Amino acid sequence: MRAAFGWVLRGSLLGGLAFMIFGPLANLVLWAVAIRWYFPHKLPLTWGFKYWGEVFKPTSDTVAALGTSVLIASITVIVCLLLAVPAGYALGRGRLPGRPMILLILLLPQAFPNLAVYFNIARLFYIVGLNGTIAGVVLVHAVHGLVIAVWIAAAAFAAIDPELELAARNIGASALRTALTVTLPLAMPGLMASAIFVFLESLDEFTGTYFVGVPDVTTLPLAMFTASLGGNYQIAAITALVLLVPSVGFLLVIERFLKAEMLAKVG
């Protein structure tokens, strides 16, 4: 009796978890292929891909927003890596005093409510002329992305065996050559993972883009929000699925890069 109750309990918990994960996704898929669907009908009255054509036609605002999102995310990755690689090397390989405190300070932007932070950033950017520009949006995205990039880069460099660098130096390689031919290639999987995380963070960012970019910069999350406000749930659902594809794909790639020994070095 007790064993049967245990199986029922586990099945219920797993079923509830599966519903929480896949229920919203199923609803998105239904809206993405629905042409006519209104209360009180539980399923769409008319099915089809009519709205997919509207989303992906060359003159669509969604296509333009996708291009803007990819451009901003790519620039954000470059900016973050340019700062995170030397910072991660110093934190992971160097013996900096107060290293844990420095890593903790990097987390401070995450400790405050995003709404208040972005509201004040938007006011400052308006004064200096960065409001409504791609440069301003990139700077806002880089604030969050830099935290991810530095932490993962520091863990990637810390996971490298110092004996390998020492061996390269012993056979005559300079410090720069050792860094370029030994240290960087060994840290590359972690740096690639940090780049992917930053890209996805920027691609999905909404609040900062809304306060700093609107109305001149429109990204895919903003296009989805606008479609939802206008009652265009099919457009919003398709946009959400488009955002979901790179997230799932890149996370599968990240799983190959982030190993247990690297994660143990975080912090």
Query: How many domain regions?
Result: 2
Strand numbers in spatial order across the main sheet: 1-2
In the CATH hierarchy, what is the architecture of the largest domain at level 2? Answer: Orthogonal Bundle
Structural class: mainly alpha
Order of helices and strands: HEEHHHHHHHHHHHH
Report the CATH superfamily of the largest domain: MetI-like
The count of strands amounts to 2
Rg of Cα set: 23 Å
Low-pLDDT stretches are none
Distance between the termini: 47 Å
Q: What is the percent of helical residues? A: over 70%
Count of alpha/pi helices: 13
Question: Features of this protein?
Answer:
267 residues, MetI-like fold, 2 domains, 2 strands, 78% helix
Explained architecture:
It is a single chain. By secondary structure, this protein is mainly α. The protein folds into 2 domains: 48 residues, no CATH class; 203 residues, Orthogonal Bundle (MetI-like fold). It has 13 helices and 2 strands. The mean pLDDT is 84.
Quick structural overview:
The chain has helices spanning 2-32, 50-56, 61-92, 99-106, 108-111, 114-128, 134-158, 162-170, 175-204, 207-213, 220-229, 233-257, 260-263, and strands at residues 34-36, 46-47. With 267 residues, it is mainly alpha-helical.
List the topology elements.
Elements lengths: L1 H31 L1 E3 L9 E2 L2 H7 L4 H32 L6 H8 L1 H4 L2 H15 L5 H25 L3 H9 L4 H30 L2 H7 L6 H10 L3 H25 L2 H4 L4
Antiparallel strand pairs: 1-2
Helix pairs in contact: 1-12, 2-12, 3-7, 3-9, 3-11, 6-10, 7-9, 7-10, 8-9, 9-12, 11-12
